[in-house]
Amino acid sequence: MEITMRPMTLDEAWQCISNCYVMYHRDLKKCGYSCWPFIPKPMFESFNTPNLSEQEIKLCHDKFVGIYNRNVSCLNRFDDIFESYIKPKLEDAINKFLVPLLPSWNATMPEKLDILCTFGRGASYNRKDEQHAIIDFRMSRYPDDKNVVLNTLFHEFVHMLIEKPIIQKYKVPQDLKERIVELICYEFIKAPVRSMFADSFANAYITPETIKSDLPGTVEKMMADYIS
Q1: What tens-digit pLDDT sequence spans the chain (228 residues)?
Q2: How many beta carbons lie within 10 A of that of residue 34, not counting itself?
Q3: Mind giving me the DSSP string for the chain?
Q4: pTM to 2 decimals?
């Protein structure tokens, strides 16, 4: 698999913010997320307001153009450690831990992964097709910690692998989906888990054994019990 990293263009970064705005007010806000990871600081108040008018959206766009032009250079800040550390470690973790599980997860590996850098903190995933996956990496407020970056990218890659064959198939809600991925990432790379999902219905089902033996069947059983 080919892995690349580059800054988003202005249009890509604005589209990312627009997508996050919809997803935040539709799904993420009710799960306890704050708006702050999704946007540059000067736009917090507008982003946190639901149902913006077309005029308000245009004002946000115009403000963002200025923010992007003044700060685009910061989107290259992880370029050196990406090539020297993050990319090799990510490839190793994917090949060692995830590739052997593809058949049991009913998952497929893309041929290309693009990591597109933008403003904020956090990341999201997009499987454009079977061959091409994208991680939108909101990295401008990340600490200079290469392992934090690695953990984030591995987390999103796991999301991408199981989204269609497991999460969508069994209609797993957002909070359970996040807990499943965090437990997988902790098992394989000891990535920290978030306290907001710690008391999860998934805990009794998603174990080191079920992750490796029958994740789809375990999630199917979990969701049957969850809705009963």
Answers
A1: 999 999 999 999 999 999 999 999 998 888 888 888 998 888 888 898 999 999 999 999 999 999 999 999 999 999 999 999 999 999 999 999 999 999 999 999 999 999 999 999 999 999 988 899 999 999 999 999 999 999 999 999 999 999 999 999 999 999 999 999 999 999 999 999 999 889 999 999 999 999 999 999 999 999 999 998
A2: 11
A3: -EEEEEEPPHHHHHHHHHHHHHHIIIIIGGGT--SGGGS-GGGHHHHTSSS--HHHHHHHHHHHHHHHHHHGGGGGTTHHHIIIIIHHHHHHHIIIIIGGGHHHHT----SEEEEEEESSSEEEEEEEETTEEEEEEE-TT--S-HHHHHHHHHHHHHHHHHIIIIIITTT--HHHHHHHHHHHHHHHH-----GGGSS-GGGGT--HHHHHH-HHHHHHHHHHHHH-
A4: 0.94
φ/ψ (deg, to 5) at 220? -60, -45
Distances in Å between the Cα of 43 and the Cα atoms of 6, 17, 121, 131, 167 are 23, 10, 14, 35, 32
